[in-house]
Design a protein that fits this description.
Order of helices and strands: HHHHH
Largest sheet: none
Structural class: mainly alpha
Distance between the termini: 132 Å
Radius of gyration: 47 Å
Number of strands: 0
Number of helices: 5
Shape: rod-shaped
Helix content: over 70%
């Protein structure tokens, strides 16, 4: 508020000088449909509120920066009127996101249980491969024995043929 009062005093239109602002709180039973912090007006009499506010608005409109800001109020009001619709949309998106999160959590749990089962199958396959490797080693040993046995048989047959 002090910055506003200073701006009004230092950038008043030509021909207007403001000596000081008188600030005071008006306690009233009038329902202006505004939060209480906006009901404090710098005035001495309730009957004068409208006139002083009109003068204040005209003064504010004459200041270039403030006039531009004041001219944006209708579009701001229109934008603000869209907020309930935006909130409804955001609430709907949040509900969908919550549902998706629940689905994802369930999916992740299912993937976790599938992964555990797959880990079990992989371990079983490793054990099977170890046993199979053992069978292959046994077969190699047997093949060596058979090779040696066949060699002896060939030698015996050779001696028989020679006789």
């Amino acid at each position: 508020m002090n910055e506003l009062f200073h701006a009004i005093q230092t950038r008043a239109p030509p021909g207007i000088s403001i000596g000081q602002f008188v600030k005071g709180e008006i306690i009233t039973d009038i329902d202006l449909n505004m939060p209480s912090e906006f009901l404090k007006l710098g005035t001495d009499e309730i009957s004068d509120i409208g006139r002083k506010l009109d003068k204040g608005v005209k003064l504010l409109e004459s200041l270039p920066d403030i006039k531009e800001s004041v001219s944006m109020l209708p579009s701001i009001k229109e934008s603000v009127s869209m907020l309930p619709g935006i909130k409804t949309g955001i609430d709907a998106m949040n509900m969908k996101l919550d549902a998706f999160t629940d689905e994802q959590r369930t999916f992740n749990q299912n993937v976790g249980s599938h992964t555990q089962r797959l880990d079990g199958y992989i371990e079983e396959q490793r054990e099977h491969n170890k046993r199979f490797d053992g069978y292959i080693e046994e077969q190699r040993g047997y093949n060596k024995l058979m090779g040696a046995h066949n060699l002896r048989l060939e030698q015996i047959l050779q001696k028989l043929v020679e006789k």
